Amino acid sequence: MAKINPDILQWLLHNTNSQNLYNAVKNFEELSRYMQQGGFKINAGTFDSAIVQQRLLNLLLQHDELLLLPFLSELSRRRPWRNACKAAKMLDGEYLLKNWRKMIESLADPRMIIMGLYMESKNEALSRLAQRLINCPSLWKNKTEAAAPDKDMTEAWSCLASEARTEKNARATNPEQLKAEQNKNAELRKQIKSYKNEIEQMQRQKLQSQENLELLRRQQEEKLREQEKQWRQECEIQVGMAKNQAEEKHQAALQRLLGYTSDEEARLQQNIKQAGSLNQRINTALQRQAEINQRYGLKRRLLQKINRLQLRQEQLRMAINEALVLDDELLELEQECKTKLQTLRDTLTGEPQPLQLDSMPFRIENMIKTVRLDKQECAATLQEIKQFLQQKFWRQILSSAEQSKLHDILEQQNKRHQHILAQNKNNAAGNTASSKEIWHLTQHFADFKRTNIYVDACNLMLRAPEWQEIMKDKGQAETRRLLVEKCKKKVHLFRQIALVFDGVEAMDCIDNIGNNFSLHFAAKKHEEQNADNYLVEMLQKKMRDPKQISWIVTDDYGLRNRLQELCDAAVPAEAFAKFLKM
């Protein structure tokens, strides 16, 4: 389609009211986006401005192939162009093709019907005619002189092309007519007001009726619930009476059939209770003996300990006999083993001292005071001791003063336990895993993602029993490789893991494996403690972040003391080795 004249577009926008322009632009998403570029806001009132109309005109001319036809299609569904398009539809195509000159000459302003024909014509011949008329400059100029049009034709075309309007009653200029209209309007307003009052009254009556119905419904439900409750109680009473009668009949039948009397049945029940009581006493005694065994040990465990100590003593003797240069500590260890073995043998062969009644209050007091108050199970242990002392035979053994003293000690220990628990809870809330030794890493799982772990790898391989066996069987290189593999499997749980080894080179070496796992080989600057010094220097250079946690894995207490201010907690080598096995 050929480009449309800008004057025609300007005339089109000028003869469309702002509300219809706004609706057409809003429904055409592409044009609406162009109009709102640069933070420009549009609404129905903005299209009254000549600047906004000029902006719309420029957009239509710049993107005529993309925007013009859809925009004209949107306008054709809105007044006054909707009626113009309807008029163009109603006209016969062949008649228009033959008599278009007569149609134009018959109208004082034919531009409206031409625009309707341009928007609506689907016929190819009519489209060409509409394009020719659109591009005719003489039709779109404001003529000062106008030929006398055909009056009948003008009225006919005006009825077709213009919007159907409801005639407005001209304001009466006569004062009497004006007064009559005012009186009529006043009467109408009074009627409207009375209708409104009636409607409001009916609405209030409706609401009141609904409230009354709701109240009646609630009362009926409450009445039904009370009746149901009463029926249920009566049913329960009747069922209970029926059960009692059935039980009486059953007992009477048993007495008739089996020859039981009430006295015999009572004796039978008593025997059953006594048998149950004896069984319970046996179980209680066995449980107490198990607790005593757990506290003081068994002969089997003592023999196992003696055998292990004898084996270690033989190893010491072999080392002493085969050594060319003897370490003095080996002799000291041999003497300690000998003394310990003698003590264990005396314990095994000696007779336990009988309990003296005079020493029993003192021993019970020591038992109470030796309970670990920082353990969670302390309260249960103290409660068991209290129940144990409340048994009848203790009242016969201990005097009232001794019993009172022991109960006071129990209360004091219980209060101290509660105080320690509260203090530990406050410390845990203020500082997680700070300046302490961690034996169970999984208890701090919530802090793993902000935890940096620094491992004294050589100390771990030498002190953890599992890694000692691996090093003895496979050598140091294979042990180091297995340790790296184990740490790789756990590194995703933590923020960072760093393994520090004693190196053999003259300079430090760092091998980064992934984003949060690294191997550090400390330079051989001294005969020993190269890895320790490297760990201290590395943590001193690292900026402390209060959101992060640092743990050192080592059994070297000298290194722990040096890193006490730089790390939040220390992890024993054995505990970390167990965690790697999980």
Strand content bin: 5-15%
| Derived structural class | mainly alpha
Q: Which term fits the overall shape?
A: flat
Mean pLDDT: 76
Main β-sheet, spatial strand arrangement: 1-7-6-2-3-5-4
Kindly, what is the distance between the CA atoms of the first and last residues, rounded to a whole number of angstroms? 78 Å
Sheet with the most strands, sense and barrel status: 7 strands, mixed
Number of strands: 7
Radius of gyration: 53 Å
Low-confidence stretches: 143-154, 159-172, 353-357, 430-435
The number of helical elements comes to 24
Compute the number of structural domains.
5
Helical fraction: 55-70%
Can you walk me through this structure?
By secondary structure, the chain is mainly α. It folds into five domains: 156 residues, no CATH class; 34 residues; 49 residues; 58 residues; 146 residues, 3-Layer(aba) Sandwich (Rossmann fold), CATH 3.40.50. 67% of the residues lie in helices and 6% in strands. It contains 24 helices and seven strands. The protein has a seven-stranded mixed beta sheet. Helix 15 runs parallel beside helix 18. The longest helix is centred in the middle third of the chain and has 84 residues. It starts with 5 loop residues before the first helix and ends with a helix. About 6% of the residues have low confidence.
